[in-house]
Specification:
This protein is mainly beta and 90 residues long. It is 8% helix and 46% strand. It has 1 helix and 6 strands, in the order ββαββββ. The strands form 2 sheets. Strands 2-1-5-6 form a 4-stranded antiparallel beta sheet. It has a two-stranded antiparallel ribbon with strand order 3-4. β1 and β2 form a beta hairpin. The longest helix has 7 residues. It is globular, with a radius of gyration of 13 Å. The protein starts with 20 loop residues before the first strand and ends with a strand.
């Protein structure tokens, strides 16, 4: 759960956390409940430190549950792919 209006900076965006992640081949995508892409990045640093701010093409996305997929590699070359949900509160 995250809220762009949260008092704590760490709760204002949806970000990726992990160790030994390689920037090579990284993708993060976020979709609304109708399958519309609302956020995508191939920049691991952006996904980890900036993240999704709850906007869709510059406009505030609706409060609700969104599906994300994150794909990439670890530094040892092993691949990972995770899919889950994140809730946006306003």
């Amino acid at each position: 759960v995250f809220s762009p209006a949260a008092n704590q900076v760490e709760n204002q965006t949806f970000r990726i956390f992990g160790q030994n992640l390689s920037p090579e081949g990284f993708t993060l995508t976020v979709y609304n409940r109708w399958g519309h892409l609302v956020y995508a990045t191939t920049d691991l640093n952006k996904a980890m430190f900036t993240g999704w701010d709850g906007k869709d093409n510059g406009a505030e996305a609706q409060m609700g549950v969104y599906t994300y997929t994150v794909k990439g590699k670890f530094l040892d070359g092993n691949s990972y792919e995770k899919t889950g949900t994140v809730t946006l509160l306003r």
